[in-house]
């Protein structure tokens, strides 16, 4: 499992909201899919209203999200 930090923006109401989210996935395509799934379920946003600007692989030592760190390392 690898960790990725994904940044971009999604439509919220009549404006756009920026985001930066960390996800754990096997590869970059899996990370994008996971992000689309999470933002869609948490915010009720259709995939066509989510724009991904950057996907960066992040070393485990630099992770901020504890759940992602646990998924990558297998420990807290």
Q: Could you explain the architecture of this structure?
A:
This protein has 76 residues and is an alpha+beta fold. A 3-stranded antiparallel beta sheet has the order 2-1-3. The protein has helices at residues 28-43, 66-73; strands spanning 2-12, 15-25, 50-58. The chain contains 2 helices and 3 strands; from the N terminus they run E-E-H-E-H. The protein is elongated, with a radius of gyration of 13 Å. A hairpin with a 2-residue loop joins strand 1 and strand 2. The chain has one domain: Ubiquitin-like (UB roll) (Roll).
List keywords for this structure.
single chain, 76 residues, alpha+beta, Ubiquitin-like (UB roll), three-stranded antiparallel sheet, 32% helix
Topology at a glance:
Elements (H helix, E strand, L loop, with lengths): L1 E11 L2 E11 L2 H16 L6 E9 L7 H8 L3
Give the topology string: H per helix, E per strand: EEHEH
User: What spatial order of strands do you see in the largest sheet?
Assistant: 2-1-3
What is the number of E strands?
3
User: What would you call the shape?
Assistant: elongated
Main sheet attributes: strand count, strand direction, barrel closure: 3 strands, antiparallel
Give helix % range: 25-40%
User: Into which percentage range does the β-strand content fall?
Assistant: 35-45%
Continuous helix count: 2
Q: In the CATH hierarchy, what is the architecture at level 2?
A: Roll
Average pLDDT level: 94
Would you state the CATH class?
A: Alpha Beta
CATH domain topology: Ubiquitin-like (UB roll)
Instruction: Report the span from N to C terminus.
Output: 15 Å
Which blocks of ≥5 consecutive residues have pLDDT under 50?
A: none
How many domains, in number, for the residues?
1
What class would the helix/strand composition place it in?
alpha+beta
Which value, in Å, is the CA radius of gyration? 13 Å
